[in-house]
Amino acid sequence: MSQAPRLLADIPSVHAAQRGGQVAVQCEGRTLTYAELDRRAEQVAGLLTAAGAAPGDRVAWLGRSHEAFFEIFFGAAKARVCLAPINTRLAVPEIAFILQDSGADLFLVTPEFFAAAKAVVALVDRPIRLIGLRETCDSFDSYEALRDSAPTGALSPPTLQDDVLQLYTSGTTGLPKGVRLDNANYAAFLDLRTQVEGFDYGADETVLIVMPLFHVAGTNISFSGLAAGGRVIILPEFSPAAVLRLIEDERVAHIFLVPAMINMLLQAPEIEDADLSSLKTVAYGASPISEAVLATATERFGCGFIQFYGMTESTGAGTFLTASEHRGELMRSCGKAWPQMAVKILGEDGEEVGVGEIGEIAIWGGMVMAGYWNRPEATAETVSPDRWLKTGDAGYRNADGYIFVHDRVKDMIVSGGENIYPAEVENAILGCPGVADAAVIGVPDPRWGEAVKAIVVPAAGARPDPQAVIAWARERIAGYKAPKSVDFIDMLPRNASGKVLRRELRKPYWEGHDRLVG
Q1: Does residue 303 sit in helix, strand or coil?
Q2: CATH number of the domain to which 243 belongs
Q3: Pairing between strand 403-408 and 281-285?
Q4: For the segment 63-86, what is each residue's pLDDT rounded down to a tens digit?
Q5: Which residues of 265-292 are buried (b: 16+ CB within 10 A; e: fewer)?
Q6: Beta pairing, strands 178-182 & 163-168
Q7: Which burial class, exposed, middle or buried, applies to 392 when counting CB atoms under 10 A from its CB (0-12, 13-18, 19+)?
Q8: Who's near 464: CB < 8 A, 6+ residues apart?
Q9: One domain, residues 392 and 460
């Protein structure tokens, strides 16, 4: 029986011994075999050690998705150093805040972000060593030159307590917080992934990564594919045409998509003739999906769809809905807890509520984060002493134990004393003829405190009537939940994980108003 990786740092060496000549990572035609990945990870560990990085230190990454990310990640893990990837969509001051907060003194950057990185380090109050990939540039040391000349030697073995990945929360409210994911979290992940449909890949299968590598979905799907000894293909920029072409040409078996991506693929002209027969699973999550989009996608893709619900703070784990469970009312559910994990619904008093009652979803298990970096108060507010993680999401459990997510607690609309969850209203609107996408927000109302407003993206060539949209929704949900007005927009603002930035949508409507409700 072949050896299985116990820690993430074990993945390159385990598979170099078992299938060294097989391609591990492929990106834009470039490839790394498992033997090459293992050798380069050892070199990176030497590079970091020679550069002064000690166990527990952070190393920052700002870059376009690239195969070198993995040799750097695994090298850092071998050196007991924590990699902190930074969201490339952030502005220079936001990146500077994260770099400052992480304490990283080594900053690895791909050429697309050289100029931004130089502007960032000017805002940080300590010396930062810039290391550039692929190209030479003033102020940057060459990553490849440092890697290839780095000394290699014995390192102290990684421990379960070592932080291996620090992902920063999207910061839709307040400043981003660094989520500390350690070897214990990922040891649990490696142990459980083979028991979770949608992560149980084979060594002969290809996994396509379209999520960014600063997002837990991008890293986890990649780690699972590599832990299995399969081939991971990286697509640096999401393009419906490119995704469909790669699925066909590379015989992709597994992919993770956020609902917005699924919707874009369904609307792409190339979908008509695309050969998707190689697909075995499409995993999705990170934001709500409409039943209409899901039904259409399931029919067109012709494979199993698996929903994942979780957070960065739970290493992406929480609940999953298997392909066979995508039926009837369960199409609206996010499923049941992962094996060896638990989920419960908490009332305002912190006690578990009954079947069908709405409360805050909480997650427990070995994949719950080690904590927020240098934020003990925030950690204590989010994770209880007995390791229950409060998600900030509202939901309920049905009599069979399936979890249903309503929405973020903070996005709840209170209109005339009634609680209304935007995702429920959005689900009722999507599927309306002429509607490509929709978001729902609360806007000021002198009588009700807040009124429900729909922000709609029309389908190509369509001009939906606002009253028709409202009537469509009223046929599917209670009248008090239906939108009272509809505005139109070309594109919804979303963060890297596909979540609608409702705060940005609300802003113009609330200017000059105090928030009338919580």
Answers
A1: coil
A2: 3.40.50.12780
A3: unpaired
A4: 999 999 999 999 999 999 999 999
A5: beeeeebeebebebbebbbbbbebbbeb
A6: antiparallel
A7: middle
A8: 432, 433, 434, 435, 456, 458
A9: no
